[in-house]
Amino acid sequence: MAQTTNQQDNLLEVSHLKKYFPVGGHQYLKAVDDVSFFIRRGETFGLVGESGCGKSTIGRTLVKLYEPTDGSILFNGEDITKFDRKQCKQYAREAQMIFQDPYASLDPRMTVGDIIGEGIDIHGICSGMERQKIIYDCLEKVGLSKEHASRFPHEFSGGQRQRIGIARSLAINPKFIVCDEPISALDVSIQAQVVNLLTDLQQEMGLTYLFIAHDLSMVKNISDRVCVMYLGSVMELADSMELYRDPQHPYTKALFSAIPVADPDYEAERRRIVLEGDVPSPVNPPAGCKFCGRCQMAKPICHEQAPQLKEISSGHYCACHLFD
Ligand SMILES: Nc1ncnc2c1ncn2[C@@H]1O[C@H](COP(=O)(O)OP(=O)(O)OP(=O)(O)O)[C@@H](O)[C@H]1O
Ligand code: SF4
Ligand SMILES: [Mg+2]
Fold this sequence. Notes:
Layout: E1 10-22, E2 28-40, E3 44-48, H1 55-62, E4 70-75, E5 78-79, H2 85-94, E6 95-98, H3 112-122, H4 128-141, H5 158-170, E7 176-180, H6 188-205, E8 208-213, H7 216-220, E9 225-230, E10 233-239, H8 240-245, H9 250-257, H10 264-269, E11 310-313, E12 316-318
Parallel strand pairs: 3-8, 3-9, 6-7, 7-8
Antiparallel strand pairs: 1-2, 1-4, 4-5, 9-10, 10-12, 11-12
Helix pairs in contact: 3-4, 3-5, 4-5, 5-6
Adenosine-5'-triphosphate binds at residues 21, 29, 31, 49, 51-57, 214, 282.
C-alpha cells in the first residue's frame, strides 16, 4: 500500500481490493478496481463519488456482504477475507452497516424491539430482561424511548426509522460501522440531527465509521479524512479540511465546483468546471487514467498509463499524472 502510517492506529487496512461482477460473455464489471486505503481507529472516513463509482460495493465488501475478487482487508491486523465460519460470525458482531433507505431496510412485520434485538438473538448474546434492557438502552441512545419498542416501523417518520436502523446496529456493540448514505433519503432539516447523533455515538462508544455519500458537502462536517472515487478507483485522499481547502485532483476540483457557495459575489465570479460527457462503462473502462475522457488537463500519457496513487504532501494522496 502506498500510504504509510503507524499500523497500531489502523482499525482497517485495505490493499489492492478488487470486486468484479460477472456480466456474461466472459466479461466483468469492475466495480472496485485495485483500491487501497486505511481507516484509523475512532475516525470517520468519508467515501464520495458519483453514482456507480463503487462506494456501496466497498462498504458491503468491508462488512463481508460481498466476497472480494482480489486483495486483502485487515481488521485489527487480521485478514477478514481468509476468515473461517466461526471468525466470520465473530466479525459480524464487530462490523455493522446502516443503509440509505430507512423504509426498505426495516422488516415491516417486526416490532422495533425485535428488529433491534435480532442481532442479540442471532449471536446468542443474552435473553429475557437483559435483552430487553439492551433494546431500551439502544432506543434511548438514539433519542427514542422504550415505549417505541412495541411499535412497528410504519408508525415512524423517515428520520425516526433511520434512528431505529442505527439502534439495531448498536445493539451488539460493534467497533466499526459502514454508514451507506444514511442521510441522503432524509429531509434536509433532519439530516443534521442524524449526523449529530452519529457523531455523539462515535464519541460515547469509540466507534469507527466509513461514511458514504455522493455529495462532498455531506461528508465535509462529519469526516476526518475523505477519499474521492471515480469508476472503481481512488482519485484523491486527504484530511477533510485540506481536501476542501486545497483539492488537487482535476476530478475533485470539478466535483467541488458543482457545489453552490453561500457567498453570492464569490458564486458569480468563480469559474465552474463543467463535467462533460458520461461516466464510461465499468465493463470497459478507458485505458490509462479512467477520468481521461472528461478531464480538461489530460496529456497524451493519461490515455496510455494509469496514474498511481502518490503522496503529494503529508497525508495527501492523489492519482494523477500532473504530479509525476
Ligand atoms: N450485485 C451486483 N451485480 C452486478 N453489478 C453490480 C452489483 N452491485 C453493484 N454493481 C455495479 O457496480 C458498480 C458500482 O456500484 P455501487 O452500488 O457500488 O456504486 P455506488 O458508488 O454505491 O453508487 P450509488 O451512489 O448510486 O449508490 C455499478 O456499475 C453497479 O451497477
Ligand atoms: S491523470 Fe491526466 S486525465 Fe487523469 S486526472 Fe490527471 S491530468 Fe486528468
Ligand atoms: Mg451506493
